[in-house]
Amino acid sequence: MQIYISGSLAFDRIMTFPDKFSNHILPDKIHILNVCFLVDGLEERFGGTAGNIAYTLSLLDTKGVILSQVGKDFTAYDERLQQYGISVEGIRTIDTEFTAGAYITTDKADNQITGFNPGAMKYPCQYDMSKIDDSEALGIISPTNLSDMIDHPKYYRENGIPFIFDPGQQIPAFTGDQLKEAFMGAEILITNDYELEMIMNSTEMTKDEIIDSVAYLITTLGEKGSVVNCKGEETTIGVAPANAVVDPTGAGDAYRSGLLKGLSMGKTVVDACKLGAVCATYAVEKNGTQEHSFTMEEFTERYETSFGTLEG
After folding, report:
1. Of 157, 187, 4, nearest in space to 91 by CA
2. Residues 17, 37: contact at Cβ < 8 Å?
3. What are the pLDDT tens digits along the chain (312 aa)?
């Protein structure tokens, strides 16, 4: 089965300020704020929803096809993807833009100031979806360019291709009707509990109505695990214990990688979610979204410690 990953590719540029922001902001001058923070250097990491999902999938010996858009500064990221055997055929380059980037400054109190430049993500990826083999494909639509998030589910639906819809931080960009149409008929709608509330508010649908509109609803609950709903039947999925919780950023994308791997193996959605739970644990044990690693032997051992025998 070929997995197609619609989502963003981005650079995370992380800076640390060795003091508290509050010590350098004058409350009575907040209406004319003009501040400069001298940071302790800059660390650049590879990120974006599609990149994160494809990376962990590659650790699971599965290569996805990324459908995304990047800018003129993408060379190093391109080399990394190809190093892991990840297809770049679905990535569009916009020569006049930079690749999407988040500029994150954290102070000593763990407060953050973030600037996000969408760059090339302002444009659709324009992948020729007719190249997809309808009988051997699985799609996931994660946060990216809005028109891709509307058009790709429509194509999958019209061609009988199962897909996962994962709107994430792009939920506010949709109208209620656009959002409802995008996930209608999905094999899986996946969100965290807060995002599910946002979808309910935007679409004016109840949780039961949302469950009736898709085959499965998966709700992730952080350290409490996740829940799978299917036409009134609810199953709770536990977590794989972490050795240390260092950084939860990227755990959701790693979870989706395990979910996709399980589905590509022919596993039930519930069993695929267990693979996702193990992937998420590896992610939280490292800073960053693509810094974790494991061998299949290590993964299998951890899975079986948490959930029992892993078959297939």
Report:
1. 4
2. yes
3. 899 999 999 999 999 999 999 998 888 878 888 889 999 999 999 999 999 999 999 999 999 999 999 999 999 999 999 999 999 999 999 999 999 999 999 999 888 898 999 999 999 999 999 999 888 999 999 999 999 999 999 999 999 999 999 999 999 999 999 999 999 999 999 999 999 999 999 999 999 999 999 999 999 998 999 999 998 899 999 999 999 999 888 999 999 999 999 999 999 999 999 999 999 999 999 988 999 999 999 999 999 999 998 887
